Amino acid sequence: MSHPPYRDIAWQALWKNNPGIVQLLGLCPLLAVTNTLTNALGLGLATLLVLVGSNILVSLLRKGIPNEIRIPVYVMIIASLVTCVQLLVNAYAYGLYLSLGIFLPLIVTNCVIIGRAEAFASKNPVGIAAWDGLMMGLGFTLVLMILGGTRELVGQGTLFDGADLLLGDWATILRVQVYHLDSPFLLALLPPGAFIAMGLLIAAKNRLNSRVEAMVSPRSDVKAPVERVRIS
Amino acid sequence: MIPSMTRNGLLLALFGLAAAGLVALTHEGTKDRIAEQQKQQLVATLAQILPGDLYNNAPHDDCRLLQSRQYLGTREPQPAFIARRDSEPVAMAMETVAPDGYNGDIHLIVGIRWNGEILGVRTLNHNETPGLGDLIDIRRSDWVTRFSGYQLESEKDPRFAVKRDGGEFDQFTGATITPRAYVKAVKNALIYFNSNKAKLLQAPRCWSENEQGAQP
């Protein structure tokens, strides 16, 4: 099997087959924690870390895992990685741990991760699998951040509110008060706002699709080797 | 040759062991730091509600478990931290629960001087509506600081209610349930404190003090 080139993987993960707005995987954390940019960034980074780790492990072990038990093995790999990340966040970013709460362990159920393990990492060598994990994680983080930024801006008129929880005390300077609201615009901060913002984001992506594709697309004759998987 | 089912079973067990080992290693590496973080968080909270010139012990190490479904809002024993000056108790910070918040339990901690005067109140954990009910969070507004200095005159003290109910505490625009539940929880904590003051120091110690101790 010929390995898809790095550039193509990046293109697939960041735009064409973006896990957030095209594959629509991991919607639960995606919609739930994107009420501020800081939370979005935190969950995005945690997901990225787990994704890279699980892709590397699955790829390393791919010859040793019999086909019949691959799913339980992936689940174990992912679950233990997530637990480790959770412990690490708890130890080194306690404030963020308090604000992400339940959504950290929920990374286990994020279908992006087992989806990439099954569809990509189990068939490709380590380097390229890690790259795929990194790019998919970045694609997911970007979507989270766009959603989080939009909702925070519309909802409370700020950006990076509470960034010090994630990045340490110096980060209070990141906080931007774009405009002042007497009372926050609740719709944007509550889950319905997440659905609406998500819908608009997908619509915008579809609208821009042909233009961006014409602009950046690598050779269009390359048949996409990254198949679209859905695991429920 | 080993049948494939046995082989797969063994492999799975092996993976399970490796996964558990990885988690155990990480846990071992981070548990001290996590405990340290939690302790720091507690110390910081206590410092906010117990003025430092009042006591000279370490209240976070002098912890008692109090239990009262009626007054502390939950069946679970709640920790209370005793501040002493030269081993005489001068104040206490007790955790309590407002069970009737708009969106589930609100966990709060109330600092009370030994004569029953409120020293300070902070919210520990809540799920109230962002922007409406979350004004109980000190990072959002200074509403919780209004409690300081109050003392309960009787169990029916009318000042302990939101203004809409004839009391002295502001409700929030669009959210009355949250402050109402909150004021009631603070009042109940005071009632509990006043009527159990003599027994408080005999309450069982928190399990966290002797690290390995089993939870009661």
UniProtKB/TrEMBL annotation, chain A:
Subunit details: The complex is composed of six subunits: RnfA, RnfB, RnfC, RnfD, RnfE and RnfG.
- Which locations, inside or outside the cell, does it occupy? Cell inner membrane; Endomembrane system
Gene encoding the protein: rnfE
Membrane topology of the entry: Multi-pass membrane protein
Q: Which UniProt keywords apply?
A: Cell inner membrane, Cell membrane, Electron transport, Membrane, Translocase, Transmembrane, Transmembrane helix, Transport
What is this protein's name? Ion-translocating oxidoreductase complex subunit E
For this protein, the record's PANTHER family field holds: ELECTRON TRANSPORT COMPLEX PROTEIN RNFE (PTHR30586), ION-TRANSLOCATING OXIDOREDUCTASE COMPLEX SUBUNIT E (PTHR30586:SF0)
User: Main localization of the protein?
Assistant: membrane
Keyword flag Ligase: no
Question: Which residue ranges traverse the bilayer?
Answer: 40-61, 73-89, 95-114, 126-147, 185-204
Record keyword Translocase present: yes
Q: What does the UniProt record say this protein does?
A: Part of a membrane-bound complex that couples electron transfer with translocation of ions across the membrane.
Q: What EC number(s) has UniProt assigned to this enzyme?
A: 7.-.-.-
Automatic annotation (TrEMBL), chain B:
> Which PANTHER family does UniProt cross-reference here?
ION-TRANSLOCATING OXIDOREDUCTASE COMPLEX SUBUNIT G
Q: Which residues carry this modification: FMN phosphoryl threonine?
A: T176
E.C. numbers: 7.-.-.-
The protein depicted here goes by the name Ion-translocating oxidoreductase complex subunit G
The protein's location, in the record's own words, is:
Cell inner membrane
Membrane topology of this protein: Single-pass membrane protein
Query: What quaternary structure, including any partners, is listed in this protein's UniProt entry?
Result: The complex is composed of six subunits: RnfA, RnfB, RnfC, RnfD, RnfE and RnfG.
Cofactor(s) required, per the database record: FMN
Q: What class of enzyme is it?
A: translocase
Q: What does this protein do?
A: Part of a membrane-bound complex that couples electron transfer with translocation of ions across the membrane.
- Tell me which UniProt keywords the record has, alphabetically: Cell inner membrane, Cell membrane, Electron transport, Flavoprotein, FMN, Membrane, Phosphoprotein, Signal, Translocase, Transmembrane, Transmembrane helix, Transport
> Where does the FMN-binding domain lie?
101-193
A Pfam family annotated for this chain is: FMN_bind
Q: Give the encoding gene's name.
A: rsxG
Q: Which residues form the signal peptide?
A: 1-20
Describe the family membership recorded for this protein in Swiss-Prot or TrEMBL: Belongs to the RnfG family.
Is the Cell membrane keyword given for this protein?
Answer: yes
